[in-house]
């Protein structure tokens, strides 16, 4: 079931949804980019269609609403602990097909990885998703080869804005009632999706252990500067660390925070006694890449990387994740000859 409405009428839909839900979507922040006089597209709360940036890929993913960059888990004193209050109000997140696939990976890690994370679960239970259609590919995207160009059926409605009209495929009775209340025109609607990318990747079905010792990782020990930007913008990176903040000198009163961290940043694999599991950037790149295109699939049945290309967009050293995937594939082929 679908509807076609004017942009003004669609704002009425958003207004009615906004009475119950917070609406979270990509927004263009003018002049707030990394360089002088540049913009950045990141997620924020919206009220109208014109607040949303629908013509550009967001520089940062949606995941901060599910996994905040810094989240207080609990407070502690000498004799007791108190779980921190959380904002668990209902929200609708507008995202593209690749990012909707990324939600599956976040759920894998936090809900299906041996046990359920209670802090993630509390937020996740109050989140619904709206699909932003993709009429054409963006730079560095390779979602078609990753199989994430068509959205899974996990959204309540879609949005494709063209000219003065908005087309929506509606999968929720609640949303359908809102469209009906404004006398929206019924029409069969299929959300727009990408069928071709300028970037292509080949992922090997099986990756032998010998790839761990391959020299393809060596160049990244010098090229990668360990800034961690790729991890921060990635919609499926879930690494975090714990930080205790103390309010008193005796160290017995304070709070524990979960803070976003990165497998690519120096110090993440440090352990007690001064040990470090992955010292070079090449070793860290190997861990990240194989986790994205092999290890996660072995456990959960699908690749972690969704081909959004944000890591390629943001890397200051112009390292392309898509190129690394193809280098792995070439190395595996050479091993088999």
UniProtKB/TrEMBL annotation:
Occurrences of domain 4Fe-4S ferredoxin-type (ranges): 213-245, 296-324
Keywords per UniProt: Iron, Iron-sulfur, Metal-binding
MF-aspect GO terms: iron-sulfur cluster binding; metal ion binding
Alphabetical list of SUPFAM superfamilies matching this protein: alpha-helical ferredoxin (SSF46548)
Stored InterPro entries: 4Fe4S_Fe-S-bd, 4Fe4S_Fe_S_CS, Helical_ferredxn, Sulphite_reductase_A
Protein name from the UniProt record: Anaerobic sulfite reductase subunit A
Organism: Candidatus Weimeria bifida
Gene that this polypeptide is encoded by: asrA
